[in-house]
Automatic annotation (TrEMBL):
<keyword id="KW-1003">Cell membrane</keyword>
<keyword id="KW-0812">Transmembrane</keyword>
<keyword id="KW-0472">Membrane</keyword>
<feature type="transmembrane region" description="Helical">
    <location>
        <begin position="35"/>
        <end position="53"/>
    </location>
</feature>
<keyword id="KW-1133">Transmembrane helix</keyword>
<feature type="transmembrane region" description="Helical">
    <location>
        <begin position="74"/>
        <end position="91"/>
    </location>
</feature>
<dbReference type="GO" id="GO:0005886">
    <property type="term" value="C:plasma membrane"/>
</dbReference>
<dbReference type="Pfam" id="PF03899">
    <property type="entry name" value="ATP-synt_I"/>
</dbReference>
<dbReference type="InterPro" id="IPR005598">
    <property type="entry name" value="ATP_synth_I"/>
</dbReference>
<dbReference type="InterPro" id="IPR039072">
    <property type="entry name" value="ATP_synth_I_Bacilli"/>
</dbReference>
<feature type="transmembrane region" description="Helical">
    <location>
        <begin position="97"/>
        <end position="117"/>
    </location>
</feature>
<protein>
    <submittedName>
        <fullName>ATP synthase subunit I</fullName>
    </submittedName>
</protein>
Amino acid sequence: MLDLHHIFAMQKKALFFLLALCALGWGFTSYPTVFAGIAIGACFGTYNFWILVRRMDKFDRSISEGRKVASLGSALRFGSGIAAVAIAITLPEYFHLISAVIGLMVPYVFLFIGVFVSSVRNKGN
């Protein structure tokens, strides 16, 4: 099974490709707000996943050292999602709201795809 740092590194690469596709879609289609919404949502979603990876490291260290377990940062990630939606609501001429919400879920879709590909590769070995 892949560790979280490896998954996060793969997600960053996928995010850069997604942002490049969003830039092309923003520049060359008649739906620039949709692509801008996906891009901002994906950036905030990746930030949320980074927070989760960082908090999981602290959680693992706390458990291994026998200390009290801290929170996994759900409030911070929830606040970040609210910020992405607030930007899309405040600036509807630049960002499409539904696309921003879909963009927030992109890192989790990448996560499921990565786990699926990893399990298929390991099954063949």
